[in-house]
Design goal:
93 residues, two-stranded antiparallel ribbon, five-stranded antiparallel sheet, 2 helices, mainly beta, single chain
């Protein structure tokens, strides 16, 4: 399979009222939240996505966003910080 980071592919993230189309390499991480997930991008946008994390895990994990925990897919090409006190991820370029 090709490396989707370098191909410049975009991903449509279904939200309640629209689709947010983002370049895959601009995603910092995806976090599970029940039957949907939260997408955080490097421009500071936060989208509640109406697909479960497993959908994106099956689609992206092999080449781009490894699953580091049952709740997170992260972009290894983004700088991330993990807060040990509250357990949250933060990051960006």
């Amino acid at each position: 399979m090709h490396n989707i980071y370098y191909s410049g592919l975009k991903l449509a993230l279904p939200t309640k009222s629209r689709y947010d189309v983002v370049q895959i390499n601009n995603i910092i991480y995806l976090a599970a939240s029940g039957n949907y997930c939260i997408a955080i991008t490097d421009d500071g946008n936060r989208s509640n996505v109406y697909k479960p994390l497993k959908y994106f895990s099956d689609l992206l994990e092999d080449n781009f966003l490894p699953k580091i925990h049952h709740e997170y897919l992260i972009n290894l090409r983004q700088q991330l910080k993990y807060n040990k006190i509250d357990g949250g991820l933060a990051g960006g370029r």
